[in-house]
Design a protein that fits this description.
six-stranded mixed β-barrel; alpha+beta
Amino acid sequence: MYSNYIKLALRNMAKHRLYAAINVLGLGIGLTVFLLSTILAHYERNHDSMFSKRDRIFTAGSVFAADADIMVTETDSIYTAMEPLIRSELQDVEAIARTVRWEYLVSLGNGMDSYYQRIHFADPDLLKIFDFRYLYGDAGALSDPTGIVLSESIARKYFGRTDVLGEVVTLDHKHDLHVTAVIAYVPPDSHFTNNLTEPSFSLWCWHPYQCWRRFRAIAWRRTQGRLSMGDLTYMLLPADRDGAWLRQQSMPSTSAMPQRISRIYHQPAGLRR
């Protein structure tokens, strides 16, 4: 019986070739769009899923006032000077870490090979918030004021290998640092490696935030009142707190800051930028 149906369908398709081609093509396009949409939705839902604390990690962003006279309405960052205020007012927050990027001339220990590289300065709590996989070193690496944490990609770029603990890296021929940890490759479905503001984020280095103040005192003072997209401030909530609780908390007043901000908002850190 089924063979007769198949023969009949083939005969009709042969008789009405244009009509059949349009239907088959439409069906193929529809199935392709459905499959790609399903894959994309699954990818987005599982963004940053490699971090076990993903559901408890949030970032703080800013919404600009209507009279700010700029081309954007909000940004994913806040003033770095607000981190200690948030820490004091939201004492239930388990960990807070801010990040700032700055470009340096990076030289290896022999001084012969040099690269211009963005260094990402971060508070030590960053390695407590995100459970990276370490090839060498551990989550205490940012507690060393002269230490620097390399990604697996940057270690291979600089040294051609990953076992580089203790190797010396010099910034601008002035500041000698030693490698305290090497972090394994982070999958592409993470905002660390898939960032619109920095496509090559897989080639990154972390260094303690407080050291940036010492390296770039003038720049540090300027950025206390500057918002730069991609310089994120992360918050790790306790297991018994969630985003609804965080949204109900009052954030530090922005009255001491330039009146470009109308309010501060929170969002899950796992959202793509």
